[in-house]
Amino acid sequence: MRVPLILTSVIGLCISACSTADSNQTTTQEKYPVIQPITIDTVYHTDYVSDINSVKNVEIRARVKGYIESIHVDEGKTVRKGQVLFRISNQEYKGDLLRATAVLKSAIAEAKTAELDLLNVKKLVDKNVVSKTEYDMAKAKLDALNARIEEAESQEQSAKLKLSFSEIKAPFDGIINRIPNKIGSLIDEGTLLTTISDNQEVYAYFNVSEKEYLEFATNNKQTDHRTEVELILANSEEHPHKGYVETIEGEFDNATGSIAFRARFPNPERILKHGSSGKVRVLRKVKNALVIPQKSTFEIQDKIYVYVVDNQNKVQMRSFVPKLRMPHLYVLESGISANDKIIYEGLQDMRVGMIIKPEMKSFATIRSQLTQQ
User: Fold this and answer.
1) Is 295 exposed, middle or buried (0-12, 13-18, 19+ CB in 10 A)?
2) Could you tell me which residues are beta bridge partners of residue 44?
């Protein structure tokens, strides 16, 4: 009879100890701030590396062969439309023009003589002194001389044009770039003399993925106005003038899976130069975005997690997929709902399965504090 009595005593002590432990665990549950995701309308931006080109940028090439006789501009200088840039030796072309003019004058003189002869022959034909054949021959001679005049006029115009090519002028207002050949250089037809850029407006070319392109196309259908974009310069400063997306190429690059966009920016201060680089910043609106603070998250092996509290106040770990990352916030794609309770602070103390005492906090208040940081 003693053994059962001893067992009963031991069991009683164990139950008492367990009850005391549970009581201690209940009394030692700590408070942790808990929030729920909120829904907001927000704007975010995406930056794309871009190449900047002048709207007007052309090569100035020689159209005749010769020596560079004079250079009337310097690299980096502003020029006006019609201003003389280069002169190429033109004695040969002046000689060609003189010869062409002489040939034309000779043809005109011969034609005048032939015209008088034709009039005389016509009078004789009318008096039956000579046959009509003589008249036809005189007329044919005049027609041939008139054809020679047209040919001579064409040669003279060609000679004038070649002579004018020896003087190279600016096609528009712009800035002169590198001048590779100096005075005295022998150049051929087609030799590059310089390039000229009008930087009042510039193009910024950037590549967009197929997914982003489809989002852009969908948003554009919903709005009638052009999509405004910003330009971030190489020194991370923002270009003072906003631009807009002007065109999109007609096909995707199979190698990269992207498509090229072209944005146009005003550049009245001429800060942007042809060939420079930057980043085009595209702003996008998101309506009814479900967001949580980044402070409530942690990463394990390229996945992002939060601690959530279930109905029994038990801590669970859950991964989620972010749609995008904003300052201090994540916009949620999947994995978390608006009703989930997320532990805001004290993540380093959390263990899966532990029971806490959640203390609900206003995420709206927390968000305003985060944006002020």
Assistant:
1) middle
2) 284
Residue count of the chain? 373
Give the separation between CA 182 and CA 188, rounded to whole angstroms.
Answer: 14
**Strand bridging mode 31-35 / 357-360:** parallel
DSSP 78-131: EE-TT-EEEEE--HHHHHHHHHHHHHHHHHHHHHHHHHHHHHHHHHHHHTTSS-
Q: What is the Cα–Cα distance from 284 to 242, expressed in whole angstroms?
A: 15
Taking CA atoms, 279 is separated from 6, 282, 330, in Å, by 82, 10, 23
DSSP code of residue 301: T
Query: pTM for the whole thing?
Result: 0.68
Q: Are 312 and 355 in contact (CB under 8 A)?
A: yes
Domain 46-54+198-286: CATH architecture, name and number where available:
Beta Barrel (2.40)
CATH class of 90-165: mainly alpha
Q: Would you list the domain boundaries of the chain? A: 29-44+288-371, 46-54+198-286, 90-165
pLDDT tens for the 373 residues of the chain, in order: 344 434 344 444 444 444 444 444 444 678 899 999 988 888 888 899 999 999 999 999 999 999 999 999 999 999 999 999 999 999 888 898 999 999 999 999 988 988 888 888 788 877 787 788 888 888 898 889 899 999 999 999 999 999 999 999 999 999 999 999 999 999 999 999 999 999 999 999 999 999 889 988 877 776 656 888 999 999 999 999 999 999 999 999 999 999 999 999 999 999 999 999 999 999 888 888 899 999 999 999 889 999 999 999 999 999 999 988 888 889 999 999 999 999 998 889 899 999 999 999 888 777 777 766 5
- Using CA atoms, how far apart are residues 198 and 172, in angstroms rounded to an integer? 8
- Phi/psi of residue 198, nearest 5 degrees: -105, 105
The DSSP secondary structure of 29-88, one letter per residue, reads: PPEEEEE--EEEEEEEEEEEEEEEEEEEEEEEE-SS-EEEEEE---TT-EE-TT-EEEEE
* C-alpha distance from residue 266 to each of 34, 239, 243 (Å): 49, 10, 7
Domain 29-44+288-371 has CATH 2.40.420.20: yes
For residue 296, give the 3-state DSSP assignment: helix
